[in-house]
Amino acid sequence: MLHIAFIAHDRKKEEMVNFVTAYEHVFTPHELYSTGTTGLRIMENTSLQIHRFMSGPLGGDQQIGALVAENIMDFIIFLRDPLMAQPHEPDIIALLRLCDVQGIPVATNIATAELLVKAVERGDFAWRELVHKYKPGTQND
Description:
By secondary structure, this protein is α/β, with parallel strands linked by helices. The chain has helices at residues 13-22, 24-27, 36-45, 60-69, 89-102, 110-122, 126-133, and strands at 3-8, 31-34, 51-52, 75-79, 106-107.
């Protein structure tokens, strides 16, 4: 079972709902997390159960970041809107930085999300074994 998070900026929420709906069968057996409104929209359109955190601007990105920092999260689908300034941009950058430090894959567009989900569908979880074996900050650096 993987721990997967969904985050989508306002103008990307519909795209996220459509994506998760299309791959509901892949996500069903996994532990799912999301920021507030994104998770609500997904649950309204699927039968998936999602642990919802606060809205991104209210700290939801940081709550997901805490799971990344603890090396609990396996990957994140974060559909960002690159054409709209976000008032909580520092939180977004902090989350992406944590993912880089911990070696957690982040899909920031639908094409990359598709690649990650196809890997999950194949049962290809090798990246998690590598992350645990060569965790940053250890003698394996």
